[in-house]
Amino acid sequence: MERRTFCSRITALSASALAAHQAGGAAQQKISAAPDSMPQIPFGKYRVSRLVLGANPFHAGSHLSIFVNQEMRTYYTLEQKLKTLRRCEAVGISLWQGSDDHHWVYRQYREQGGRMLYISLGRCDVPTAEHYLKQLLDVGCIGIAHHGEVTDSLFKAGKLDRIHDYLKRVRDAGVLVGVSTHMPDVVDAVESKGWDIDFYMTCVYERHRTREELKKLMGYVPIPVREVYLEEDPPRMFKAMRQTQRTCFAFKILAAGRLCDRKESVEQAFRQTFESIKPTDGVIVGIYDKFSDQAGEDAEYTRRFSALSHA
Fold first, then answer.
1. Considering the domain boundaries, does residue 67 fall inside one?
2. What pTM does this model have?
């Protein structure tokens, strides 16, 4: 939650779009979309779109650079966030994965007639955990996943069981219970424990390896240490997703924007993901729609490749 962690994307500009932007226009070509044709999956008592709106661009978490973060922060005013949410709904996206203070935006979106459902991240390691849980319930949040960064840190420290009581409190609150992670080993561990959960949020890249882990794996330490995306990672997470019967939402399928330089690489990432996950799984993708209709583009890829998933 990614991703977020949580899931941001910067689309490469075409020459014409860049020229329009430099001229002060940056006119978008909106993609025609039939919302009713969006593939859906069961999610508790609900049915939701296989394409889920991610959180990170809304809170300027690009996982690219502080400069991109600032650009996202400037672009995503409250008005623009609401506009993007309405566009996502228009192309058939029916679920938004938020985090941080996004529940306040969701409240305003619903008050203006928005119909998308909402899930969020929560965490066990802060004093305000109970208060935040109440805030999420007050806006109609239907599911809460334990934050992936915290999950993974506790797992590495041999303290994964610390999140169990939090998950029980989420269950007692009457909403869907999830675990977010960037590590296939966490999925395997939770499965082996038989915990009462409904879904996973699964980052397909293990992006937070330590300096020592990278040195051992690669023989050297790249810069920056915490943002290393390896081609070998997605197949490992896809395998973990297929081995659980629970719903999984793959996120950072575009390597936090690193696969967005060309349309072909974006298309290939969507194709590979849907080929590799169960028919009951979904994908979470962040939208940064300043330069193109990313909601429409991603909806089209989802409609095109969804049928490639197999049990």
1. no
2. 0.88
Q: Which domain holds residue 132?
A: 43-62+81-206+232-308
Establish if 8 belongs to a structural domain: no
Cross-strand partners of 118: 96
* Chain position carrying tokens 């069961």: 42
In DSSP terms, 143 is beta-bridged to 119, 176
Alpha-carbon span 301 to 295, nearest angstrom: 10
- How far lies 299's CA from each of 51, 134, 241, 303, 306, in Å? 7, 32, 22, 6, 10
Q: Are 167 and 150 in contact (CB under 8 A)?
A: no
CATH code for the domain in which residue 151 is found? 3.20.20.100
User: In total, how many domains does the chain have?
Assistant: 1
- Could you tell me if 281 and 247 are in contact, meaning their C-beta atoms sit under 8 angstroms apart? yes
* Residue 226 placed within a domain: no
- Computed over every residue of the chain, the mean pLDDT equals 89
pLDDT surpassing 50 at residue 154: yes
Cα–Cα–Cα angle for 272, 274, 276, nearest 5°? 70
Question: For residue 134, what are the contacts with CB-CB under 8 A and spacing of at least 6?
Answer: none
